[in-house]
Write a structure and sequence with these properties.
Elements lengths: L2 E13 L5 E9 L2 E7 L1 H4 L3 E6 L9 H10 L6 E5 L12 E2 L9 E7 L4 E3 L1 H5 L37 E3 L3 E13 L4 E5 L9 E5 L1
Antiparallel strand pairs: 1-2, 1-12, 2-11, 3-4, 3-6, 4-5, 7-10, 7-12, 8-9, 10-11
Length: 205
């Protein structure tokens, strides 16, 4: 399988063999249980669906309960699909843990970034401030001209303006796996990953 589901625990630092400090993010990865094996004949494509976390039965809808019962697994909090590894036979109920990854390899981590609410163009798009003097008035943090006049008499789509900032899916690629802790199902990757503590993340090779 090409990846697993997990959650972000937080950041810390470790020291390598040369004595250099390395900032790392601690991720709890797995155990993930196979809930469905999708095939070309039945679903139109090949994939492996896995579940992570514990969900109470009273918080599980009846269609999902039937889905988990058919796979003979307990209700899971999060579901995700990953590519199959050719030559490996997947079965429902199989469990995969952090041992899927190895130290030194590079992974991509996807998560939901922290929500910042309604933000201006300086915070949201890294605009520079205007002058405070020479007749500009109190518009230091204003966006300024959006570039339109009588022609074309409209604002082009995609114009950078103030608006909702954060709370979107972000993927950070090529993060080095520094340490694999199979006892605690924890993965240490170099650098930062998107999201807040205890946020759900997806790690792919």
């Amino acid at each position: 399988m090409r990846g697993l589901i997990g959650k972000k625990i937080g950041m810390t630092r470790i020291f390598n063999d040369q004595g250099h400090m390395v900032p790392v993010t601690v991720l709890q990865v797995g155990p993930c249980t196979v809930t469905q094996v999708k095939t070309v004949g039945k679903d139109g494509y090949e994939a492996v669906q896995v579940g992570f976390g514990v969900r109470k039965e009273k918080h599980t809808t009846k269609p999902l309960q039937g889905h988990f019962n058919s796979a003979n697994v307990s209700p899971k909090k999060i579901l995700a699909e990953f590519e199959k590894v050719s030559g490996f036979e997947y079965k429902t109920g199989q469990s995969f843990h952090v041992g899927l990854f190895q130290e030194g390899e590079f992974v991509s981590v996807s998560g939901t970034s922290k929500g910042k609410g309604f933000a201006g163009v300086i915070k949201r798009h890294n605009f520079a401030r205007q002058k405070k003097t020479h007749g500009t008035g109190h518009t230091e943090r204003a966006p300024g001209s959006i570039g339109q006049a009588s022609d074309p008499s409209r604002v082009f789509p995609g114009m950078k303006m103030a608006g909702h900032h954060g709370n979107s899916k972000v993927t950070v690629e090529n993060l080095e796996v520094v340490k694999v802790d199979t006892e605690n199902n924890q993965l240490l990757v170099k650098g930062a990953v998107p999201g807040a503590k205890n946020g759900t993340i997806i790690i792919t090779k």
